[in-house]
Amino acid sequence: MEALTAAAGQPHPAGSIASLPSVDALIARYVGEGLVSGIVVAWQQGGAPVRFACAGEPAFHAGRPVDADSLFRIFSMTKPITGIATMMLIEDGRLALDQPLHSILPEFADARVMIDGDPARTRPAARPITIRHLLTHTAGLGYHNAGDGIASLYIRNGLTPGTRDRIRGPGELAAPGSLAEMGSRLARLPLVTDPGTRFEYSIAIDVLGLVVETVSGMPFETFLQQRLFDPLGMADTAFVVPTERLGRLTALVERRGEAWKFVDDPAHSVYARPALPSGGGGLVSSARDYARFAALLVNEGELDGKRLLKPETVRLARSNLLPDGVDHIELPLGYTWPGIGFGAAMSVQVADGEAPAGVFGWPGAAGTGCWIDPARRFFLVFMTQYWPPEINVTMRPEIIAAAYRDLSGQG
After folding, report:
1. Cα gap 109→89, rounded to integer Å
2. Is the pTM of this model over 0.85?
Protein backbone atom coordinates (compact mmCIF):
# COMPACT_ATOMS: atom_id res chain seq x y z
CA MET A 1 0.00 0.00 0.00
CA GLU A 2 1.46 3.33 -1.03
CA ALA A 3 2.58 5.70 1.72
CA LEU A 4 1.58 9.32 1.40
CA THR A 5 4.11 11.09 3.58
CA ALA A 6 6.40 11.86 0.65
CA ALA A 7 3.65 12.37 -1.89
CA ALA A 8 1.70 14.95 0.05
CA GLY A 9 4.18 17.79 -0.56
CA GLN A 10 3.23 21.40 0.08
CA PRO A 11 -0.29 22.70 -0.55
CA HIS A 12 -0.86 24.40 -3.90
CA PRO A 13 -2.10 28.00 -3.84
CA ALA A 14 -5.88 28.28 -3.79
CA GLY A 15 -7.42 27.05 -7.02
CA SER A 16 -4.06 26.57 -8.75
CA ILE A 17 -4.43 22.91 -9.71
CA ALA A 18 -6.98 22.30 -12.46
CA SER A 19 -6.91 18.52 -12.85
CA LEU A 20 -5.98 15.24 -11.17
CA PRO A 21 -4.40 13.33 -14.09
CA SER A 22 -3.23 10.38 -11.97
CA VAL A 23 -6.75 9.94 -10.62
CA ASP A 24 -8.22 10.23 -14.12
CA ALA A 25 -5.87 7.50 -15.36
CA LEU A 26 -6.68 5.21 -12.45
CA ILE A 27 -10.45 5.40 -12.78
CA ALA A 28 -10.18 4.80 -16.53
CA ARG A 29 -8.03 1.73 -15.83
CA TYR A 30 -10.39 0.33 -13.19
CA VAL A 31 -13.32 0.59 -15.60
CA GLY A 32 -11.28 -0.65 -18.58
CA GLU A 33 -10.19 -3.74 -16.65
CA GLY A 34 -13.79 -4.52 -15.68
CA LEU A 35 -13.18 -4.11 -11.94
CA VAL A 36 -16.27 -1.88 -11.70
CA SER A 37 -18.86 -0.65 -14.17
CA GLY A 38 -18.50 3.05 -13.43
CA ILE A 39 -16.81 5.63 -11.22
CA VAL A 40 -17.48 9.28 -10.40
CA VAL A 41 -14.96 11.44 -8.56
CA ALA A 42 -15.71 14.90 -7.15
CA TRP A 43 -12.99 17.11 -5.76
CA GLN A 44 -12.21 20.65 -4.74
CA GLN A 45 -9.01 22.41 -3.73
CA GLY A 46 -8.47 25.85 -2.30
CA GLY A 47 -12.00 27.14 -2.80
CA ALA A 48 -11.99 26.62 -6.57
CA PRO A 49 -15.17 25.22 -8.17
CA VAL A 50 -15.94 21.55 -7.49
CA ARG A 51 -14.72 19.41 -10.38
CA PHE A 52 -15.91 16.00 -11.51
CA ALA A 53 -14.28 13.10 -13.34
CA CYS A 54 -16.38 10.21 -14.64
CA ALA A 55 -15.63 6.86 -16.26
CA GLY A 56 -17.86 3.98 -17.31
CA GLU A 57 -21.54 3.23 -16.93
CA PRO A 58 -24.09 2.89 -14.09
CA ALA A 59 -24.24 -0.84 -14.85
CA PHE A 60 -22.23 -3.12 -17.10
CA HIS A 61 -23.50 -2.71 -20.69
CA ALA A 62 -25.96 0.03 -19.67
CA GLY A 63 -25.13 1.98 -22.83
CA ARG A 64 -24.95 5.38 -21.11
CA PRO A 65 -22.30 7.06 -18.94
CA VAL A 66 -22.29 7.76 -15.23
CA ASP A 67 -22.21 11.42 -14.25
CA ALA A 68 -22.16 13.73 -11.24
CA ASP A 69 -25.87 13.08 -10.62
CA SER A 70 -25.75 9.27 -10.76
CA LEU A 71 -27.05 7.80 -7.51
CA PHE A 72 -24.99 5.46 -5.32
CA ARG A 73 -25.74 3.50 -2.15
CA ILE A 74 -23.26 5.15 0.18
CA PHE A 75 -23.71 2.76 3.12
CA SER A 76 -21.38 3.88 5.94
CA MET A 77 -20.66 7.24 4.31
CA THR A 78 -24.03 7.96 5.97
CA LYS A 79 -22.24 7.88 9.34
CA PRO A 80 -20.45 11.26 9.08
CA ILE A 81 -23.77 12.88 8.14
CA THR A 82 -25.33 11.44 11.31
CA GLY A 83 -22.26 12.54 13.26
CA ILE A 84 -22.60 16.12 12.02
CA ALA A 85 -26.33 16.09 12.83
CA THR A 86 -25.35 15.12 16.38
CA MET A 87 -22.77 17.92 16.51
CA MET A 88 -25.47 20.40 15.47
CA LEU A 89 -27.46 19.47 18.57
CA ILE A 90 -24.33 19.77 20.70
CA GLU A 91 -23.77 23.25 19.24
CA ASP A 92 -27.43 24.06 19.98
CA GLY A 93 -26.84 23.16 23.64
CA ARG A 94 -29.40 20.35 23.47
CA LEU A 95 -26.79 17.59 23.79
CA ALA A 96 -23.40 17.31 25.47
CA LEU A 97 -20.47 15.22 24.32
CA ASP A 98 -20.13 13.36 27.63
CA GLN A 99 -23.85 13.25 28.41
CA PRO A 100 -25.06 9.77 29.47
CA LEU A 101 -27.25 8.10 26.88
CA HIS A 102 -29.75 7.04 29.55
CA SER A 103 -30.58 10.69 30.24
CA ILE A 104 -32.14 10.72 26.76
CA LEU A 105 -33.12 7.06 26.38
CA PRO A 106 -33.85 5.72 29.90
CA GLU A 107 -34.00 2.13 28.70
CA PHE A 108 -30.18 2.13 28.50
CA ALA A 109 -29.80 2.97 32.23
CA ASP A 110 -28.87 -0.49 33.49
CA ALA A 111 -26.55 -1.74 30.76
CA ARG A 112 -24.85 -5.06 31.30
CA VAL A 113 -21.73 -6.54 29.70
CA MET A 114 -21.17 -10.09 28.48
CA ILE A 115 -18.71 -12.21 30.44
CA ASP A 116 -16.17 -13.97 28.20
CA GLY A 117 -18.33 -13.27 25.14
CA ASP A 118 -21.26 -15.29 26.52
CA PRO A 119 -24.60 -13.42 26.25
CA ALA A 120 -26.06 -15.71 28.94
CA ARG A 121 -23.50 -14.51 31.50
CA THR A 122 -23.41 -10.78 32.20
CA ARG A 123 -22.30 -8.21 34.77
CA PRO A 124 -23.17 -4.52 35.28
CA ALA A 125 -21.34 -2.13 32.95
CA ALA A 126 -18.53 -0.18 34.59
CA ARG A 127 -19.92 3.16 33.39
CA PRO A 128 -22.82 4.51 31.34
CA ILE A 129 -22.74 4.92 27.57
CA THR A 130 -22.21 8.57 26.54
CA ILE A 131 -22.69 10.52 23.31
CA ARG A 132 -18.89 10.50 22.87
CA HIS A 133 -18.91 6.71 23.07
CA LEU A 134 -21.59 6.48 20.39
CA LEU A 135 -19.79 8.89 18.04
CA THR A 136 -16.51 6.95 18.35
CA HIS A 137 -17.78 3.35 18.33
CA THR A 138 -16.63 2.87 21.93
CA ALA A 139 -20.09 2.36 23.47
CA GLY A 140 -19.59 -1.39 23.84
CA LEU A 141 -22.16 -2.17 21.15
CA GLY A 142 -21.64 -4.63 18.28
CA TYR A 143 -22.83 -5.12 14.71
CA HIS A 144 -24.97 -7.71 12.98
CA ASN A 145 -22.28 -8.42 10.37
CA ALA A 146 -19.35 -8.84 12.78
CA GLY A 147 -19.43 -12.66 12.64
CA ASP A 148 -19.32 -13.11 16.44
CA GLY A 149 -21.71 -14.05 19.25
CA ILE A 150 -23.28 -10.63 19.55
CA ALA A 151 -23.89 -10.57 15.79
CA SER A 152 -26.10 -13.66 15.96
CA LEU A 153 -27.97 -12.13 18.89
CA TYR A 154 -28.60 -8.94 16.92
CA ILE A 155 -29.81 -10.94 13.92
CA ARG A 156 -32.24 -12.95 16.06
CA ASN A 157 -33.67 -9.66 17.32
CA GLY A 158 -34.00 -8.15 13.84
CA LEU A 159 -31.29 -5.56 14.54
CA THR A 160 -29.75 -5.35 11.08
CA PRO A 161 -30.12 -1.65 10.16
CA GLY A 162 -29.01 -0.72 6.67
CA THR A 163 -29.81 -4.23 5.41
CA ARG A 164 -32.96 -4.07 3.32
CA ASP A 165 -33.25 -7.44 1.64
CA ARG A 166 -32.48 -9.90 4.42
CA ILE A 167 -34.71 -12.97 4.57
CA ARG A 168 -35.71 -13.80 8.15
CA GLY A 169 -34.54 -17.11 9.48
CA PRO A 170 -36.45 -19.39 11.88
CA GLY A 171 -37.13 -17.67 15.18
CA GLU A 172 -35.81 -14.29 14.03
CA LEU A 173 -37.76 -11.10 14.59
CA ALA A 174 -38.73 -8.84 11.73
CA ALA A 175 -36.87 -5.55 11.43
CA PRO A 176 -38.16 -2.95 13.91
CA GLY A 177 -40.76 -0.58 12.52
CA SER A 178 -39.20 2.52 14.06
CA LEU A 179 -35.95 3.79 15.55
CA ALA A 180 -37.63 3.80 18.96
CA GLU A 181 -38.42 0.09 18.64
CA MET A 182 -34.84 -0.55 17.50
CA GLY A 183 -33.53 1.19 20.61
CA SER A 184 -35.90 -0.67 22.90
CA ARG A 185 -34.79 -4.05 21.54
CA LEU A 186 -31.11 -3.12 21.66
CA ALA A 187 -31.28 -1.89 25.26
CA ARG A 188 -32.40 -5.35 26.40
CA LEU A 189 -29.25 -6.97 25.00
CA PRO A 190 -25.82 -7.10 26.67
CA LEU A 191 -22.84 -5.01 25.63
CA VAL A 192 -19.69 -6.53 24.16
CA THR A 193 -17.33 -4.48 26.34
CA ASP A 194 -17.49 -1.75 28.97
CA PRO A 195 -18.23 1.64 27.40
CA GLY A 196 -15.15 3.74 26.73
CA THR A 197 -12.65 0.86 26.70
CA ARG A 198 -12.40 -0.40 23.11
CA PHE A 199 -13.20 0.64 19.53
CA GLU A 200 -15.84 -1.76 18.25
CA TYR A 201 -17.34 -0.88 14.85
CA SER A 202 -21.00 -1.01 15.66
CA ILE A 203 -24.67 -0.08 15.53
CA ALA A 204 -23.82 2.99 17.63
CA ILE A 205 -24.39 5.48 14.82
CA ASP A 206 -27.89 4.09 14.24
CA VAL A 207 -28.53 4.73 17.94
CA LEU A 208 -27.41 8.32 17.35
CA GLY A 209 -30.18 8.60 14.75
CA LEU A 210 -32.62 7.77 17.54
CA VAL A 211 -30.89 10.30 19.83
CA VAL A 212 -31.26 13.03 17.19
CA GLU A 213 -34.90 12.09 16.69
CA THR A 214 -35.66 12.11 20.43
CA VAL A 215 -33.84 15.33 21.31
CA SER A 216 -35.05 17.28 18.27
CA GLY A 217 -38.64 16.10 18.56
CA MET A 218 -38.89 15.31 14.86
CA PRO A 219 -38.24 12.18 12.75
CA PHE A 220 -34.54 11.63 12.12
CA GLU A 221 -34.95 11.88 8.35
CA THR A 222 -36.86 15.17 8.76
CA PHE A 223 -34.06 16.63 10.89
CA LEU A 224 -31.50 15.73 8.21
CA GLN A 225 -33.70 17.25 5.53
CA GLN A 226 -34.33 20.51 7.37
CA ARG A 227 -30.91 21.07 8.93
CA LEU A 228 -28.57 19.65 6.26
CA PHE A 229 -29.98 18.51 2.94
CA ASP A 230 -32.26 21.45 2.15
CA PRO A 231 -29.81 24.20 3.22
CA LEU A 232 -26.98 22.50 1.29
CA GLY A 233 -29.05 21.81 -1.82
CA MET A 234 -28.54 18.05 -1.49
CA ALA A 235 -31.65 17.30 -3.52
CA ASP A 236 -30.84 13.66 -4.28
CA THR A 237 -29.73 12.41 -0.83
CA ALA A 238 -32.36 10.33 0.96
CA PHE A 239 -33.14 6.96 2.53
CA VAL A 240 -35.61 6.13 -0.28
CA VAL A 241 -35.16 6.71 -4.03
CA PRO A 242 -38.34 8.13 -5.58
CA THR A 243 -39.62 6.38 -8.69
CA GLU A 244 -38.68 9.32 -10.93
CA ARG A 245 -35.01 9.04 -9.87
CA LEU A 246 -34.57 5.27 -10.24
CA GLY A 247 -33.22 5.77 -13.76
CA ARG A 248 -30.18 7.46 -12.19
CA LEU A 249 -29.54 4.73 -9.60
CA THR A 250 -26.44 2.68 -10.32
CA ALA A 251 -26.48 -1.12 -10.14
CA LEU A 252 -25.05 -2.89 -7.12
CA VAL A 253 -23.44 -6.05 -8.43
CA GLU A 254 -21.57 -8.87 -6.73
CA ARG A 255 -18.49 -10.53 -8.16
CA ARG A 256 -18.69 -14.33 -8.19
CA GLY A 257 -15.59 -15.76 -9.79
CA GLU A 258 -15.35 -14.07 -13.18
CA ALA A 259 -19.05 -13.19 -13.34
CA TRP A 260 -21.13 -10.36 -11.91
CA LYS A 261 -24.60 -10.81 -10.44
CA PHE A 262 -27.12 -8.17 -9.38
CA VAL A 263 -27.33 -7.58 -5.63
CA ASP A 264 -29.72 -4.69 -6.19
CA ASP A 265 -31.12 -4.06 -9.66
CA PRO A 266 -32.20 -0.41 -10.09
CA ALA A 267 -35.31 -1.54 -11.96
CA HIS A 268 -36.47 -3.47 -8.88
CA SER A 269 -34.46 -1.76 -6.16
CA VAL A 270 -35.16 -2.28 -2.47
CA TYR A 271 -34.15 1.38 -2.11
CA ALA A 272 -37.42 2.37 -3.79
CA ARG A 273 -39.35 1.01 -0.79
CA PRO A 274 -39.68 2.55 2.70
CA ALA A 275 -37.08 1.41 5.23
CA LEU A 276 -35.87 2.18 8.72
CA PRO A 277 -33.78 5.38 8.41
CA SER A 278 -30.38 3.89 9.19
CA GLY A 279 -28.01 6.61 10.35
CA GLY A 280 -25.23 4.08 10.13
CA GLY A 281 -25.68 3.08 6.51
CA GLY A 282 -28.97 3.82 4.80
CA LEU A 283 -28.54 6.81 2.50
CA VAL A 284 -28.37 7.06 -1.26
CA SER A 285 -26.50 10.07 -2.66
CA SER A 286 -24.66 11.45 -5.68
CA ALA A 287 -21.12 12.76 -6.09
CA ARG A 288 -22.57 16.24 -6.59
CA ASP A 289 -24.59 16.05 -3.36
CA TYR A 290 -21.90 14.54 -1.17
CA ALA A 291 -19.44 17.13 -2.46
CA ARG A 292 -21.76 19.77 -0.99
CA PHE A 293 -21.51 18.08 2.41
CA ALA A 294 -17.72 17.78 2.11
CA ALA A 295 -17.46 21.42 1.07
CA LEU A 296 -19.41 22.45 4.17
CA LEU A 297 -16.83 20.73 6.34
CA VAL A 298 -13.74 21.89 4.46
CA ASN A 299 -15.13 25.45 4.79
CA GLU A 300 -15.61 24.94 8.55
CA GLY A 301 -19.39 25.03 8.57
CA GLU A 302 -20.26 27.57 5.87
CA LEU A 303 -21.24 27.13 2.23
CA ASP A 304 -22.49 29.68 -0.31
CA GLY A 305 -22.89 32.29 2.40
CA LYS A 306 -24.96 30.02 4.66
CA ARG A 307 -23.47 29.10 8.03
CA LEU A 308 -24.79 25.80 9.34
CA LEU A 309 -22.14 25.14 11.99
CA LYS A 310 -19.67 27.23 13.94
CA PRO A 311 -16.00 26.70 12.94
CA GLU A 312 -15.20 25.42 16.43
CA THR A 313 -17.94 22.79 16.11
CA VAL A 314 -16.43 21.49 12.86
CA ARG A 315 -12.95 21.48 14.42
CA LEU A 316 -14.29 19.45 17.35
CA ALA A 317 -16.04 17.04 14.98
CA ARG A 318 -12.83 16.39 13.05
CA SER A 319 -10.66 16.04 16.19
CA ASN A 320 -9.76 12.78 17.89
CA LEU A 321 -12.64 12.18 20.32
CA LEU A 322 -11.62 8.68 21.40
CA PRO A 323 -11.77 8.16 25.17
CA ASP A 324 -8.49 8.06 27.07
CA GLY A 325 -6.82 4.68 26.74
CA VAL A 326 -8.36 3.78 23.37
CA ASP A 327 -5.40 4.13 21.03
CA HIS A 328 -6.08 2.05 17.92
CA ILE A 329 -8.83 1.31 15.42
CA GLU A 330 -9.71 -2.26 14.48
CA LEU A 331 -11.79 -2.18 11.31
CA PRO A 332 -14.04 -4.94 9.97
CA LEU A 333 -12.25 -7.71 8.05
CA GLY A 334 -9.57 -7.75 10.77
CA TYR A 335 -7.63 -4.69 9.56
CA THR A 336 -5.90 -2.28 11.94
CA TRP A 337 -5.72 1.23 10.50
CA PRO A 338 -2.42 2.93 11.45
CA GLY A 339 -2.27 6.50 12.71
CA ILE A 340 -6.05 6.83 13.02
CA GLY A 341 -8.24 8.38 15.67
CA PHE A 342 -11.99 8.92 15.55
CA GLY A 343 -14.09 12.07 15.56
CA ALA A 344 -17.82 12.59 14.98
CA ALA A 345 -18.61 9.22 13.35
CA MET A 346 -15.61 9.48 11.02
CA SER A 347 -11.92 8.67 11.10
CA VAL A 348 -9.26 11.29 11.72
CA GLN A 349 -5.60 10.88 10.73
CA VAL A 350 -3.60 11.67 13.86
CA ALA A 351 -0.32 10.80 12.09
CA ASP A 352 0.73 10.45 8.46
CA GLY A 353 -0.43 7.11 7.05
CA GLU A 354 -2.78 6.30 4.18
CA ALA A 355 -3.44 10.06 4.13
CA PRO A 356 -1.60 12.99 5.74
CA ALA A 357 -2.26 13.91 9.37
CA GLY A 358 -5.47 15.90 9.79
CA VAL A 359 -7.40 14.23 6.95
CA PHE A 360 -10.84 13.02 8.01
CA GLY A 361 -13.77 11.17 6.42
CA TRP A 362 -15.16 7.67 6.05
CA PRO A 363 -15.85 5.07 3.31
CA GLY A 364 -18.88 2.97 2.42
CA ALA A 365 -19.05 -0.82 2.07
CA ALA A 366 -19.87 -0.78 -1.65
CA GLY A 367 -16.74 1.10 -2.72
CA THR A 368 -17.49 4.75 -1.96
CA GLY A 369 -15.24 7.06 0.07
CA CYS A 370 -14.61 10.66 1.11
CA TRP A 371 -11.38 12.32 2.29
CA ILE A 372 -11.31 15.90 3.59
CA ASP A 373 -7.98 17.69 4.11
CA PRO A 374 -8.45 20.97 6.02
CA ALA A 375 -4.76 22.00 5.76
CA ARG A 376 -4.89 21.94 1.95
CA ARG A 377 -8.57 22.94 1.75
CA PHE A 378 -8.99 19.83 -0.36
CA PHE A 379 -11.57 17.06 -0.51
CA LEU A 380 -12.14 14.09 -2.76
CA VAL A 381 -15.38 12.11 -3.04
CA PHE A 382 -15.14 8.70 -4.71
CA MET A 383 -18.29 6.93 -5.92
CA THR A 384 -18.53 3.45 -7.36
CA GLN A 385 -20.53 0.26 -6.61
CA TYR A 386 -19.32 -3.28 -6.09
CA TRP A 387 -19.88 -6.19 -3.74
CA PRO A 388 -18.65 -7.86 -1.59
CA PRO A 389 -16.60 -5.22 0.28
CA GLU A 390 -13.47 -7.37 0.45
CA ILE A 391 -12.82 -7.23 -3.31
CA ASN A 392 -11.00 -4.25 -4.84
CA VAL A 393 -9.48 -3.50 -1.42
CA THR A 394 -6.61 -1.45 -2.88
CA MET A 395 -8.85 0.77 -5.00
CA ARG A 396 -9.58 3.52 -2.47
CA PRO A 397 -6.01 3.75 -1.08
CA GLU A 398 -4.67 3.92 -4.64
CA ILE A 399 -7.09 6.73 -5.51
CA ILE A 400 -6.15 8.89 -2.55
CA ALA A 401 -2.42 8.23 -3.10
CA ALA A 402 -2.82 9.31 -6.73
CA ALA A 403 -4.68 12.45 -5.67
CA TYR A 404 -1.82 13.51 -3.40
CA ARG A 405 0.73 12.82 -6.13
CA ASP A 406 -1.26 15.19 -8.34
CA LEU A 407 -1.55 17.80 -5.59
CA SER A 408 2.22 17.73 -5.04
CA GLY A 409 2.98 17.91 -8.78
CA GLN A 410 4.34 14.37 -8.92
CA GLY A 411 1.57 12.86 -11.04
Report:
1. 22
2. yes
User: Rounded to 5 degrees, what are φ and ψ at 373?
Assistant: -115, 95
The C-alpha atoms of residue 391 and residue 367 are separated, in whole angstroms, by 9
Q: Are residues 195 and 225 in the same domain?
A: no
Point out the domain boundary residue: 176, 198, 216.
Answer: 216
Sign of the C-alpha dihedral computed for residues 71, 74, 75 and 81 taken in this order: negative
Amino acid sitting at position 34: G
| pLDDT under 70: residue ranges of the chain | 1-17, 147-148, 332-336, 410-411
In this structure, which amino acid lies at residue 305?
Answer: G
97 backbone φψ class: left, alpha, beta (φ>0; ψ -120 to 50): alpha
Phi-psi bin for 109: left (phi > 0), alpha (psi -120 to 50), beta? alpha
DSSP 232-293: HT-TT-BSS--GGGGGGBPPEEEEETTEEEEEE-GGG-GGGS-----TTT--EEEHHHHHHH
Q: What's the confidence (pLDDT) of residue 257?
A: 80
Determine the straight-line distance between the first and last CA of the chain, rounded to whole angstroms. 17
pLDDT of residue 14: 41
Q: Are residues 143 and 282 in the same domain?
A: no
Are 384 and 317 in a shared domain?
A: yes
CB 157 within 8 A of CB 144: no
